[in-house]
């Protein structure tokens, strides 16, 4: 076995596999059998597949040259590996269970490893379905899996021996971002941040790759196994999973060294803290506030200068602001809501009520607590805004694309981040002076106000980067006030797509050019309560999978009376704990 294969081989089989089950069971045909694993010491280490199997190395031989023939049938599996040479391996696949029975025969799978150049272009262009992404996300999250597929990342404290020198052989830093190069933010990074680093470090260059939030975790896993992971990456949705797996370098000592620690707004620091470590550098920040029409408040006899500060007063205002025609149809909703009310806002209300999605004594791997009384009360209160109080149609308000619902008067209020205001000012300025900003509310009058905090650009450093010192040097350039101010003032060349966010730092926000000309941010709750927010549970392992597969479907069932609220929440908690336990026990 070539040493190039050890710990580097990735299998992704897509052809049909036919198995015959014993004891009278009919033939089972599997159309897409995805196998992920690697070879070490002559053994195939199984990671994940959608058909449970036990694989063992059976034999190997040279592959025929390309175009030179070879077996072609339903049992051929075409695998791809970044590091393995063109060699064929025949494996035995012994299914563990099928329809509750044990199959009576083994199936030999022919697995082809293409050469490195050929496989590199194939792997990097491969598109995975959402189902495949979820499988990979699950496979990525657990420490057990990390121990099984690759050696655990070495600790790399500031100044430790694990850091490579700036004179390392590779002179390219890989940066993965959740904004593409054509986006104003991506273009600003390339033109005004990367260029400064490259000028200050001759011979070095930065390779920019666009990776969506959904793709990040599986791509990081597969690229690491292929030997080409990112050195820095925008880590919005993979915070818990990648930190738990040891992929993120603690950054608190570096931020302190750069003199920024005490200037960082607490709420945004907390967004990037997992297990006590700052696992990313936050940028493009903001805490969501209520946007409301002051003139509608006046018409309803409400104080337009004092937005409600608790659940009861907010509901009273929303009821007074809702309007209907003679047939009882809503013509102006008391609150902008979709078909299923925003899970993020339900979670924020649960925070206000002393609850949350997970046991906060262990936010990384703890049990799901959405079925606890504190969360359940927030859940029911939110759904009842539609079901009982009728401030919005049960199916949600249907509006034409591009409608600015509150600005145009279809709703009396909505929840938005500070980035919404400059876009409104540019695209729909006629009613801008009628807009008011309401601070986050509390459960009861005088309680703690908690909103939803966001940091759309959380930059992590890969803990095992072979150019880690250079990567930290690039992050230091990114952290400089000039870089941050450029990034947070980004706009397209035509001036029609502003990307104006708050920074995570008090002193930098004072110097943001766009903020000086925007009183709806500068002089309102957007700055006063910037640090008051919390995010939903992205710091928990497997959260992306839970968000896609659990929260919305069960919320909708409760909304339309298909499940009782507590029953729906019990099911959510059980399924979420199942994902967590699976990750922690098997890594799959």
Structure description:
By secondary structure, the chain is an alpha+beta fold. The protein has 3 domains: 3-126, no CATH class; 136-285 and 454-499, 3-Layer(aba) Sandwich (D-Maltodextrin-Binding Protein, domain 2), CATH 3.40.190; 289-441 and 536-585, D-Maltodextrin-Binding Protein, domain 2 (3-Layer(aba) Sandwich), CATH 3.40.190.10. Helix content is 34%, strand content 18%. Strands 10-9-11-20-14 form a 5-stranded mixed β-sheet. The chain is globular and about 75 Å long.
Enter the CATH topology name of the largest domain: D-Maltodextrin-Binding Protein, domain 2
Helix content: 25-40%
CATH class wording of the largest domain: Alpha Beta
Shape: globular
Please give the order of strands in the largest beta sheet.
10-9-11-20-14
Major pleated sheet? 5 strands, mixed
CATH architecture level-2 label of the largest domain? 3-Layer(aba) Sandwich
The total domain count is 3
Could you state the CATH homologous superfamily of the largest domain? Periplasmic binding protein-like II
The low-confidence parts are: 1-164
DSSP strand (E) fraction?
A: 15-25%
Please give the alpha-carbon distance between the first and last residues.
Answer: 27 Å
Mean pLDDT: 77
Please give the count of helices: 21
Q: Structural class given helices, strands, pairing?
A: alpha+beta
Q: How many strand segments? A: 22
Radius of gyration, CA atoms, in whole angstroms: 26 Å
């Amino acid at each position: 076995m070539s040493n190039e294969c050890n710990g580097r081989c990735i299998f992704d089989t897509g052809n049909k596999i036919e198995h015959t089950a014993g004891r009278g069971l009919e033939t089972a045909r599997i159309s897409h059998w995805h196998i992920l694993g690697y070879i070490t010491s002559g053994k195939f280490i199984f990671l994940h597949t959608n058909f449970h199997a036990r694989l063992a190395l059976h034999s190997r031989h040279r592959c025929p040259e390309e175009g030179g023939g070879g077996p072609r049938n339903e049992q051929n599996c075409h695998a791809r590996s970044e590091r393995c040479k063109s060699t064929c391996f025949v494996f035995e696949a012994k299914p563990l269970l099928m329809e509750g029975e044990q199959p009576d025969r083994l199936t030999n799978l022919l697995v082809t490893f293409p050469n490195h150049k050929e496989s590199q272009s194939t792997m990097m262009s491969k598109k995975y379905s959402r189902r495949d992404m979820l499988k990979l996300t699950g496979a990525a999250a657990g420490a057990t899996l990390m121990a099984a597929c690759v050696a655990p990342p070495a600790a790399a404290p500031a100044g430790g021996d694990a850091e490579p020198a700036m004179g390392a052989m590779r002179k390219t830093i890989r940066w993965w971002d959740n904004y593409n190069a054509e986006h104003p933010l991506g273009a600003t990074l390339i033109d005004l941040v990367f260029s400064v680093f490259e000028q200050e470090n001759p011979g070095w260059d930065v390779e920019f790759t666009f990776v969506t939030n959904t793709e990040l975790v599986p791509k990081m896993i597969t690229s690491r196994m292929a030997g080409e992971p990112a050195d820095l990456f925008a880590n919005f949705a993979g915070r818990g999973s990648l930190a738990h797996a040891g992929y993120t370098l603690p950054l608190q000592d570096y931020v302190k060294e750069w003199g920024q620690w005490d200037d960082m707004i607490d709420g945004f620091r907390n967004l990037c803290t997992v297990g006590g470590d700052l696992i990313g550098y936050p940028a493009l920040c903001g805490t969501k506030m209520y946007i409301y029409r002051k003139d509608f408040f006046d018409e309803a006899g409400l104080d337009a200068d004092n937005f409600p500060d608790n659940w009861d007063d907010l509901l009273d205002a929303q009821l007074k602001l809702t309007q209907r025609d003679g047939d009882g149809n809503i013509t102006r909703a008391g609150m902008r809501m979709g078909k299923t009310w925003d899970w993020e806002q339900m979670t924020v209300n649960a925070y206000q009520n002393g609850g949350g999605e997970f046991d906060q004594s262990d936010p990384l791997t703890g049990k799901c607590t959405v079925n606890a009384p504190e969360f359940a009360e927030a859940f029911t209160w939110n759904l009842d805004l539609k079901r009982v109080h009728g401030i919005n149609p049960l199916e949600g308000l249907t509006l034409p694309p591009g409608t600015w619902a509150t600005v145009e008067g279809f709703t009396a209020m909505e929840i938005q981040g500070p980035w919404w205001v400059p876009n409104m000012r540019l695209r729909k300025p006629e009613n801008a002076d009628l807009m008011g900003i309401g601070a986050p509310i509390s459960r009861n009058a005088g309680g703690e106000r908690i909103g939803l905090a966001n940091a759309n650009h959380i930059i992590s450093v890969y803990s095992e980067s072979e150019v880690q010192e250079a990567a930290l040097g690039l992050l230091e350039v990114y952290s400089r006030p000039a870089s941050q101010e450029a990034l947070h003032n980004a706009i397209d060349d035509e001036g029609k797509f502003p990307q104006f966010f708050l920074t995570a730092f008090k002193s930098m926000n004072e110097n943001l050019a766009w903020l000086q000309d925007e009183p709806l941010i500068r002089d309102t709750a957007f700055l006063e309560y910037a640090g008051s927010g919390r995010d939903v549970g992205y710091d928990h392992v497997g959260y992306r999978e839970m968000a896609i597969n659990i929260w919305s479907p069960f919320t909708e069932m409760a909304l339309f009376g298909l499940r009782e609220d507590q029953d729906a929440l019990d099911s959510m908690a059980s399924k979420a704990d199942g994902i967590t336990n699976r990750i922690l026990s098997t890594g799959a």
